[in-house]
Amino acid sequence: MAYVSMGEAHRRITEYLNRFCDAVSYQDSSTLCRLLSFSSNSPPLLSLADALNVFQDASSLIRQSDKFSEYGEILAHLFRSLQSYRVGNLVEAYLAFEKFANAFVQEFRNWESAWALEALYVVCYEIRILAEKADKELTSNGKSPEKLKAAGSLLMKVFGVLAGKGPKRVGALYVTCQLFKTYFKLGTVNLCRSVIRSIETARIFDFEEFPRRDKVTYMYYTGRLEVFNENFPAADTKLSYALQYCNPKRERNIRMILKYLIPVKLSIGIIPKDELLQNYNLHEYTKIVQALRKGDLRLLRHALQEHEDRFLRSGVYLVLEKLELQVYQRLMKKIYIIQKLSDPARAHQLKLEVIAKALRWLEMDMDLDEVECIMTILIYKNLVKGYLAHKSKVVVLSKQDPFPKLNGKPVGS
Amino acid sequence: MISDCFLSWGSFLLNTNLVIILSSFSQPGAAVSTSNDTYWMHQAPSLQVHHPVPPQNNYQSPLETKPLYETPFQGHQRATYPQEMNSQSSFHQAPLGYRQPTQTAPLVDSQRVSKVQIPTNPRIASNLPSGFTKMDKDSTAASAAQAPAYVSVSMPKPKDHTTAMSDPGTFPKSLRGFVERAFARCKDDKEKESCEVALRKIVKKAKEDNTLYTRDWDTEPLSTVTTTNVTNSESSSAQLSSLQNKSPTRRPKSRWEPLVEGKPFVKPASTFSSAVKFGVWNHQNENNKKSSESFQKVDAATGFKPTYSGQNSAKKSFQRPVKRQRFSGGAATAIDDEASSDSDKDLTPYYSSAMALAGSAEEKKRRDSRSKRFEKIQGHSRGNDLTKPKNANVGNLHSRRATALRLSKVFDESGSRAVEDIDWDALTVKGTCQEIEKRYLRLTSAPDPATVRPEDVLEKALIMVQDSQKNYLFKCDQLKSIRQDLTVQRIHNHLTAKVYETHARLALEAGDLPEYNQCLSQLKTLYAEGIEGCSLEFAAYSLLYITLHSNNNRELLSSMSRLSEEDKKDEAVRHALSVRAAVTSGNYVMFFRLYKTAPNMNSCLMDLYVEKMRYKAVNFMSRSCRPTIPVSYIVQVLGFTGAASEGTDEKETDGMEDCLEWLKTHGANIITDSNGDMLLDTKATSTSLFMPEPEDAVAHGDRNLDVNDFFTRT
């Protein structure tokens, strides 16, 4: 830390105070944002933090002038947070920031217009980031991380402030998205439900009115929730919306959307082009797509095993696993086509024996009972049209369209 | 004077409204609004909802609010305004109906200034002794002007009760005046307390003599009250304590609350302050009347601690006004019964000691300290009673003990301290009981070291349970008591894990899933703390449980991702994962193969899914296979041969019979072919198959539990 003289420190603090108060009185949101944005680690903020650590009694400075003391509570907590942040005491920094945020929200409530919405966004963002950092610190000290949870309830409070009539309501979706991020991180996804309900049912909100950025984020998260529920048509709509309106320059975001959209599309029988996977660096799906094309069960299982951790964490594992049935369908279709070449008259009779042999070539050892079981499931789920003659161990395929395409509908519908 | 205003308030406001209004004051923050003016504007036309407007704003800008005050004054819609007016204009408006407004208005104005402080947080405000001292002065000063006001109060309550006494509305007006005069003479809380006791006695006596309505209360000498003050309080407390010769009078707010708080005396301080808070004198009276009424009722009917309802209705109403109804009158008996049923036994000794103290000088001292307790004098020592200090003595560290002692004292004094504030470390007990068997009893008080078994005894107890030949209920009960003893002694080690593991396994065996879940959640924390146990065995169980019973994809994903490569090599875990795969893909053949090869208790959890899986499988088959499927095949594939491991032919046929039985109860269509083999007619079955209502379903939800056992358990 560079040496800062007392006078210099005094000057910096006063300057910050002046800028803060001016920003508020001129309703200059962008300046206010810059003044509050901790995680940007901007030089002015860092030098202010150094100054605060030199000049310990900043609160007396605040008290000196009526102009400052009007926001005394906000500023005092903000300074304390910044001080702790600078010396790397993140838990303390979080606690002070939480108090600051509470005071700020209180003040925000009193401002009639929504001029400070951007600044409130910064506060919401910062508190979440700071809470995550504080939790990391707590975990490394062997304590239970709980700050993110606290940040979640504070964000909920902010949502309450915005969710009403008036110009501030357009900010509600941003806070909702921050809440989603928090809940997904905490693994308490079920808490999203109440927020979603108020966004989707409350009359004060017109979804189209929200900023595009927030709409995309919202659709991304709600789409992910639908993936968990295996409600593929809904997930498809939401994620497709997100993809459509996402800023095309934000490759990372597009990639994140595709990570969920691809399994969803696969589940409803739509296979992506290889270029798409390459362009967005989604190699984990390459083999799965291949397996679906070829009807290669072994490849699918290998691909799942290879990326098991990743798929489990992102929550698409079970969805991908269910693609197995489509792979079986493909395999049967192949057998059918080959049989047709040699003996067109009896091509529609697939012996279980033959299927078992094909599977053995793929190093999948299954006895006839198991093959029969899978065939009954395929027929039941309408992936194969026909019937199974148990006595003769033969699948008799329908002469018309024996392997119906999914055409955008989920399996078994 | 304040009470005067309040009185007129109460005469037309329903109690609930008051509650809403008053509680709205408790959060002035919510209403700190820059748009306060607009608030009023838009409120004026609707006049429906009460908004919590901080009073000071109205005084700062009287010009704007003024019109609002005046409309009801001049207009005729007074009745539609009550909620709107309550925060300030009611001072003007209320007396209007009964007195000349010109007369009250100046008085009100003089009151305003002091009135400003009052609607803060009602809970705090009502507890402040200064609250009523001020009121006393006021009422003394204005008593002359005041008396008529009471006389003219109208009674909103219906008067059609057969028992005149039970109806607060028929309380003679003159008696009201008498009571008010009596209180006006009291100089401080202590006097007020005794005064109330004395009044109570007088009223009761009057009731008994049937002179309540005939006596001229206006001329009744006040000396009857004041001269007998001290003796009255003494004798009446003695009387009260003799009345309740049995067991506790009220259930403590929390199970852990020191029992001293359950003292059986009516608390005049809080009762009175509740009246101040509600500002409803007749409600206060009603309160008292009701309590004394239920007093007698309860007394006569059951002989149960009569003071319960009396004190509680007053006290609870002061804390939680909305629920007041529940605590007064007959409901009190029910609560009493409940309270006594499980706590009588162990509480009686404490209570009897508390009761012995009741009528003595000790009691008087206690009352003093009670009335002072909100002044937060902490060092005040009175630690001769009750369990808390005794338990605290066991704490091993000196400092801990000190905190505990101090804490328990503060605790005794404040009484209202939240359970969360207590340092449990310092209060941990160390058991001395040597008996191995112990019945489980849900604690309703702080644990007594004499009945808690130390670790070595608990270990023996666990072995006893494991070796026991008795039924699950006995074992469950014993294990629960072991768990309880472990908990109160805060033992977290391999023994704890072992106890929970044993219990979880037994619960699985008996199909007692709720108990199993309790154990599992404890085990998760224990394993997370790094205690060795059969963590993989239980990881497998929890995986199976999620797959088969909770059907929650997210939970499943997260528990799967928590498994390390190492874990997945474990036999039980691997088995559970395979079961998971079989279930998600619907592979019934695989499922029933795994069912037969299940390690540990995995099959117990699978048991509970077998029915569903069979139904699914037969459904698949009947839709997909044509024309028939031999029943013998179903027997083999769907695990009806489960018992055939012994390999005898008889068992095989048993499986056949079971299978036929199952198919019939599920609506399947069976035909016999020329060879006499049973076949499932798939086409017919595909439309007729259904899931029957479980025959053995029971109302209490656990078919493994006999109804009688269920009742003894609860």
From TrEMBL, chain A:
GO terms for biological process: poly(A)+ mRNA export from nucleus; post-transcriptional tethering of RNA polymerase II gene DNA at nuclear periphery; transcription elongation by RNA polymerase II. Residues 216-402 form the PCI domain. GO terms for cellular component: proteasome complex; transcription export complex 2. InterPro entries: Csn12-like, PCI_dom. Keywords: Proteasome. GO terms for molecular function: double-stranded DNA binding; RNA binding. This is Proteasome component (PCI) domain. It comes from Arabidopsis thaliana x Arabidopsis arenosa. The lineage of its organism: Eukaryota, Viridiplantae, Streptophyta, Embryophyta, Tracheophyta.
UniProtKB/TrEMBL annotation, chain B:
Coiled coil: none annotated. Residues 224-258, 303-346, 358-398 are annotated as: Disordered. Residues 512-686 form the PCI domain. Residues 1-31 form the signal peptide. One of its GO terms (cellular component) is nucleus. The keyword Signal applies. This is Proteasome component (PCI) domain. Pfam families: SAC3_GANP. Residues 361-388 have a biased composition (Basic and acidic residues). Residues 224-247 have a biased composition (Low complexity). It comes from Arabidopsis suecica. It comes from the Eukaryota. Keywords: Proteasome, Signal. InterPro entries: PCI_dom, SAC3/GANP/THP3, SAC3/GANP/THP3_conserved. The keyword Isomerase does not apply. Residues 317-326 have a biased composition (Basic residues).
